[in-house]
Amino acid sequence: MTLPARVKLVEVGPRDGLQNEQAIVPTAIKVELIERLADAGLSAIEATSFVSPQWVPQMADNAEVLRALLAGPQRRPAPSYPVLTPNLKGFDAAVEAGAQEVAIFAAASETFSRKNINCGIAESLKRFAAVVDAASALEVRIRGYVSCVVACPYEGAVDPAKSAWVAERLLEMGCYEVSLGDTIGAGTPASIKRMIEACAAVVPIERLAGHYHDTYGMAIANIYASLELGMAVFDSSIAGLGGCPYAAGASGNVASEDVVYLLQGLGIECGVDMEKLLVASQFIAHFLGRQPASKVARALLARQSAR
Amino acid sequence: MTLPARVKLVEVGPRDGLQNEQAIVPTAIKVELIERLADAGLSAIEATSFVSPQWVPQMADNAEVLRALLAGPQRRPAPSYPVLTPNLKGFDAAVEAGAQEVAIFAAASETFSRKNINCGIAESLKRFAAVVDAASALEVRIRGYVSCVVACPYEGAVDPAKSAWVAERLLEMGCYEVSLGDTIGAGTPASIKRMIEACAAVVPIERLAGHYHDTYGMAIANIYASLELGMAVFDSSIAGLGGCPYAAGASGNVASEDVVYLLQGLGIECGVDMEKLLVASQFIAHFLGRQPASKVARALLARQSAR
Known about the structure:
nine-stranded parallel beta sheet; globular; alpha/beta; 14% strand
């Protein structure tokens, strides 16, 4: 079993994380957080979401955040700042603000799709087709998400074939990559491997990413199991931002610090500087008035303060 | 790669966990905790430690705890209640209180051995030989621990050959099983696998157990990697009791709830009832005035309270 030599991390804390925080984080703090994450070496940072501020007030400053990043310090290579666009209206606003990459989000569970975006899976794919077409015409890259790839908070276990079918549709439509989300973190290496194997049977694994929540403490083991299958792209969230909307007080997205620690231990390159990542983690945790939800951050910070 | 069909868990919370808690837990609470753990199906529960109360005041009631358990409800099959015995004096006191199984503890790091038990590794093995001989004469079973099998808080990375050498000595001396401790939780699946492979090259893997701390959030991935190598015994601590003596505020022993969730997800039998385990977890967490340090416990309890 050979693990990938290099892994790409997609940092989702500023969007998927902060969107699920109670606090409305000021634009300047978001921009500083994202700049610090870029300084730490993260090459893809999901910056914001172009959804209605009535749905997601936390992301109401989407255009300001994106504009500030694009006008900020230039890095080579430039990080990508994908933004979430649920529909054509959001897409147009994102492009207007300078977006060069967008993301769309489907689900592998009918009930979750209806509750999350008010339409079934097939209907959601139709809606997204319009966004994909518009993006292709403008040479804007488009990434796809699939929620509930192993389990759904309403339906329970999800058939791996269902996840594979949605992933295949999104790639066919024109997404360059599909991120497979264990939205409620219920997966273990067994269910995660079954799901990836079903997906990799219909699409190249190079185009699949793992997006695992750590609700039950399984995310790092699930990433390890995914690496064993050759998956080499993972989403993670600085300081474990976001929590779990389906279980108050439980963990949400896997923490970027923990993923980087795992990868470093396995000798896998990811281009991220742990010291700088910890500074970014402390920056946002301090703003939110709590400890980072990352065991690595807590252990390393405890060691630092003991020196 | 075939995972074991069945795994044995050794619950170490009442000893390794409570020994590292600030609070002195009353005897009756300890006994009730252990009884609840036995009710949940745990067949091996480390009950206490026969060390000097000057060193470890938390375990000063060792004889009372063990006597209460042995006089308590009889289960079939009877759980084993191993107790830690650092020397012949402790061993005699343990046997006097009715111990049928004891445990001795060496280290794979010279510096850790000197700081923890005031003598080097070779000297510690000589001291333990007297305990093993006494135990063999009385047909008392003896389990061995090795600390710092992948890393030491003082020396850094530990040579896998060193861990294998100590494990082999303990088994040769007469231990029926050796528990390999990642005492500071620094290991990842790469270093854990190298260490197990070195050990399994000199002793049968059936006689090795994994004892992993979750300081850096890697314990569940490390258990998964160990299962892939065929290891089938793991130590864990209810509610993640114990914390980390080397990094205040960091996690300690991997939580039993998280290990049971992993095993259930992998379809591996361990004989533990999750509902009853959660009740035991809440019982001791409530006594200590905090949430269980187990993501599984927090997520399941959050779901219960949302019902």
